[in-house]
Design a protein that fits this description.
Distance between the termini: 35 Å
Helix content: 10-25%
CATH topology of one domain: PH-domain like
Structural class: alpha+beta
Largest sheet: 4 strands, antiparallel
InterPro entries: DUF2510
Radius of gyration: 18 Å
Length: 236
């Protein structure tokens, strides 16, 4: 289920309606879409890219190698203009440069709907850009752009804090420190931790030699999608 926030009114008013996390409220907000811009030709569209995969040290290292810039996104979504490029992302009247983003979240909300969010702290009340999509390919392109333009910086900053001795909370549930990780009733040192995967709306942590995951963090939590890459970076 989507996080609380302003979404395009499903009742067709052309305005934004507040979703409190469980139901639509009576609160409405005006928002005007920017004028249309040329959309990329079909040949410029990036292929669908899967995000549900393991992140080992070698895999994360390959992701941080120089790559061609991603194809910009410029498309109408539910009556408002969505744009994303190497500089930042925007939807409707809201926009944010990648360099200013402090947290990211993207997840499958329910069958046929996908959510993408970026923002600054505090998570509740801070500025954010949020879009609810009904096209998985477009959502995957946004997630891929985040992994390329944003997440290496966030992972690097979090890893640097851990390496200086700080214990940090990632994904609202996972404590990461120089000795390893802990969450719920589980605590694993780096040698016992095999890595992480993202699938089925969750970020799974795997214990070395174990057949089943040790614990999971909901994928919709802020910066939860960074966990596999962060663990891979700290295990290097």
């Amino acid at each position: 289920m989507a996080q609380p926030g302003w979404y395009t009114d499903p009742h067709g008013t052309g305005r934004l309606r507040w979703w409190d996390g469980q139901r639509w409220t009576e609160h409405l907000h005006d928002q005007v879409a920017p004028p249309p811009q040329p959309q990329p030709r079909p040949s410029q569209q990036q292929p669908h890219m899967s995000y549900g995969q393991a992140y080992g040290p070698e895999a994360y290292s390959a992701r941080t190698q120089p790559q061609p810039p991603p194809t910009p996104i410029a498309v109408d979504v539910r009556g408002f203009w969505l744009h994303a490029d190497v500089q930042g992302v925007g939807y409707g009247n809201g926009s944010m440069p990648w360099a200013h983003v402090e947290w990211v979240a993207y997840w499958p909300a329910q069958p046929g709907q996908w959510v993408f969010q970026v923002g600054r702290h505090p998570f509740h009340g801070g500025p954010r850009v949020e879009v609810l999509l009904d096209q998985e390919d477009l959502w995957s392109r946004l997630a891929d752009m985040s992994r390329r333009m944003l997440e290496p910086r966030l992972v690097g900053e979090l890893a640097a804090r851990v390496r200086t001795g700080e214990q940090i909370d990632v994904g609202q549930g996972l404590a990461v420190h120089r000795g390893g990780v802990s969450g719920g009733q589980i605590s694993l040192n780096w040698r016992a931790l095999a890595g992480g995967t993202i699938r089925d709306g969750r970020v799974w942590l795997h214990q070395a030699g174990a057949a089943t995951p040790a614990l999971y963090i909901p994928q919709q939590n802020p910066n939860a999608v960074l966990i596999p890459a962060l663990l891979a970076e700290l295990k290097r």
